[in-house]
Amino acid sequence: MTSEIEIKRGLQGVYIDRSKSSFIDGTEGKLLYRGYSIHDLAEKSSFEEIAYLLLYGELPNKTQLEDFDSNLRDSRSIPAEVIEIIRVVKDSHPMDVLRTAVSALSAYDNEVADNSVEATIRKGIRLTAQAPTIVTAHARIKEGKDPVSPNSNLNQAANFLYMLFGEEPTEQEARLMEKDFVIHAEHGINASAFAARVAASTNSDLHSAVVSGIGTLKGPAHGGAAEEVMAMALEIGEEEKAESYVRNILDGGGRIMGFGHRVYKVEDPRARHLQTECQALGDQKGQPKWFRILSKVAEVMEPYQSRGICPNVDFWAGAMYHLMGIPKELFICIFAMGRIPGWTAQVTEQFSNNILLRPLLLYDGPMDLPYVPLDDRK
Ligand code: CMC
Fold first, then answer.
1. Ligand 1 and 257: CB distance under 6 A
2. Looking at residues 171-183, what average pLDDT do you find?
3. How confident is the model at residue 1 (pLDDT cuts 50, 70, 90)?
4. 190, 250, 255: which to mutate for ligand 1, most atoms within 8 A of CB?
C-alpha cells in the first residue's frame, strides 16, 4: 500500500496553486513580474514602481507612483521601543534582528489582525518602508553608532545607503542598490514565499508571514549564498588561486556557492544585471580583483552548465555589496528588504483564495510498540 504512494521530496515539480505575481521558466531562463520581463524592469524601473506593480498588479501612472512613493517615505520610521529591542539583541545575526524587529512591529500596527487585501497591502507598504530602518539601525548600533533617521528626500534604495553610512550615496551606487532590490523583489514559490504562504494559509497575518519568510530566506541554500560567495572570494584572495580552490571543493563533493538553482537549469536571468554592474563598480573603485576572481570561478564551473548548474542571482551580488562597503552579514538582509513586496503580493493572493497548506508525511517508523513504564526502562 505505502509502496504505491509517490513522495515528492522537497515538493520538487509540485504546483501548489495559481499565481499572477511572477512567471518563471527555468529551462528558458525567463522571469516575468506580473507579465513584464525582468530585463526591462531591471533596466528601466524604480524599486517603488516594482513594489506598486507587485502589490496592485499593474504599473503605476505618474500620480499613482507619486502617492505610493510618498506613502513609503512617510512610513519609514520605527517606534523607539523597537529600536530598544534592536539594542537588546544587537549581537545576533542581522537577519535574526530583522526577524525579531518585524515581529515586534506587529505590536505597533493597529491593522495587524486585519487580513483584508487592502489592509494587507497597507501593512506590506509599511514593512517595505520600515525594513531598511531596522537593518541600518542595527548595523550602526552594533558598531557603537547612533541610528540615522530616514531622509524623506531620498528614494528607498538611496535612503537605505544613507541610513547605513550616514552620508548620501552617489547616484551610481543608489541606482545599483535599486536594481538589486528590483531583481530580488519576487520569485515564484521559492522556499521563503512558500513559508509566508503557509503562515497566511492558517489565516495568521502578514507580519507572521513575513517573519516566516525572513526565517526561511536566511539559509545558505536560499538567500544566504551572497555572503558565502564573498567569503569564498576573500578566501581565494587572488585570481591565480581560484581554479585550485574550486577544484578542491568540487573534488571533496562540496558545492560552489552562487551556483545552481532549483528552478533555473540555464542562466538565472537576474544574474547578468549584477554581473555587468559588479565589473563596472570594481573598475570605478580601482578594485577589479573581485570581479576577476569570480569570473575565474565561473570559468572553472563552465562544464557544470551542461548539468544545469549556472551562476545564480547571488553570485555577483556579494562582490557588488562588498565594493560599496556593505558588511557581509548584511547581504542577505538586502535580499529580504527587496523581497517584502513579493511576499506581500503572494500573501494577498493566498488570502484572496485561501486553502490551508497542509501536505502529508509518509510515516516510516515502528508501529504499535508496547509501552514500557519509566521505572522499567533500561
Ligand atoms: N556546486 C556544485 N554542485 C552543485 C551545486 C553547486 N552550487 N548545486 C547543485 N549541485 C549539484 C549537486 O551536488 C547535485 O549533484 P549530484 O546529482 O551529483 O548529487 C546536483 O547538482 C543537484 O543538486 P540538488 O541539491 O539536488 O539540487 P537542488 O535543485 O535541490 O539545489 C540549490 C538547488 C540552490 C540548493 C543548490 O544548487 C545549491 O546548494 N547551490 C548553492 C547555494 C546557492 O547558491 N544558493 C542560492 C540560490 S539562488 C537564490 C534564490 O533564488 O533563492
1. yes
2. 95
3. low
4. 255
DSSP secondary structure of 252-312 = TT---TTB--SS-SS--TTHHHHHHHHHHHHHHTT-THHHHHHHHHHHHHGGGGGGT--B-
- Report the C-alpha gap between 33 and 183 in whole angstroms: 10
Q: Which residue has the cell 505597533?
A: 108
What domain range includes position 169?
22-186
In a domain? residue 29: yes
Is 132 within the bounds of a domain?
yes
Q: In this model, does residue 224 exceed pLDDT 80? A: yes
176: in domain: yes
Structural contact between residues 98 and 336, judged by C-beta atoms closer than 8 angstroms: yes
Per the structure, the count of domains in the chain is 1
Whichever domain contains 117, its CATH number is: 1.10.580.10
Query: What is the position in ligand 1's atom list of the atom closest to the CA of 190?
Result: 52
Tell me if 97 is assigned to some domain.
yes
**Which residue is catalytic, options 187, 207, 314, 322?**
314
Question: pTM higher than 0.90, yes or no?
Answer: yes
For residue range 257-316, what is the model confidence (pLDDT) as tens digits? 999 998 999 989 999 999 988 999 999 999 999 999 999 999 999 999 999 999 999 899
